[in-house]
From TrEMBL:
Superkingdom of the organism of origin: Eukaryota
GO molecular function: protein phosphatase regulator activity
Keywords: Repeat
GO cellular component term of the entry, any: protein phosphatase type 2A complex
Protein name, as recorded: Condensin complex subunit 1 C-terminal domain-containing protein
Repeat as UniProt keyword: yes
InterPro entries per the UniProt record, alphabetical: ARM-like, ARM-type_fold, HEAT_type_2, PP2A_Regulatory_Subunit_A
Transmembrane segments: none
Gene3D superfamilies: Leucine-rich Repeat Variant
Swiss-Prot/TrEMBL HEAT repeat ranges: 74-110, 120-149
Length: 149
């Protein structure tokens, strides 16, 4: 976990890939209880690079963790990060939503929650009107790819 906050990107990237391998080995319940809470906690770190690492981890972990963990545990953090003060974080939120979109259940998670497109689409719509041109671009691309436009 300490490698996730290293100042060298290649070290953070290797650590992220190691988390995926560990999750494949020990299972998604282990990941849900052991590493995902620590990864999501980094989303509030004052250092924007640590917040970006949260998004990179979600990008890598969503496919091994599956729909339920991605939708119920990781997605709320990604959506919240769409309001980050740093443009690089915001455009990576759009890229992450595009990447994890196929894993999410857009029809209905459970009977007590509204359809997910009512959560994802508003964030991408807001980001598509962002003042930063890169944030706009990646949000608009995600809306098209996810058929939410």
């Amino acid at each position: 976990m300490a490698w996730l906050v290293d100042h060298v990107f290649a070290v953070r990237e290797a650590a992220t890939n190691n988390l995926k391998k560990l999750t494949q080995k020990f299972g998604k319940i282990w990941a849900q209880n052991t590493i995902i809470p620590k990864v999501l906690a980094m989303s509030s770190n004052p250092n924007y690079l640590h917040r970006m690492t949260t998004l990179f981890c979600v990008n890598v972990l969503h496919d091994v963790c599956g729909k339920d963990i991605t939708t119920k545990i990781m997605l709320p953090t990604v959506l919240r990060m769409g309001s980050d003060a740093v443009a690089n974080v915001r455009f990576n939120v759009a890229k992450t939503l595009q990447k994890i979109g196929p894993t999410l259940d857009y029809k209905q998670v459970d009977l007590s929650r509204p359809p997910l497109h009512t959560e994802v689409k508003p964030v991408l719509d807001r980001l598509s009107r962002d003042q930063d041109i890169d944030v706009k671009y990646f949000a608009q691309e995600a809306l098209v790819v996810l058929c939410l436009n």
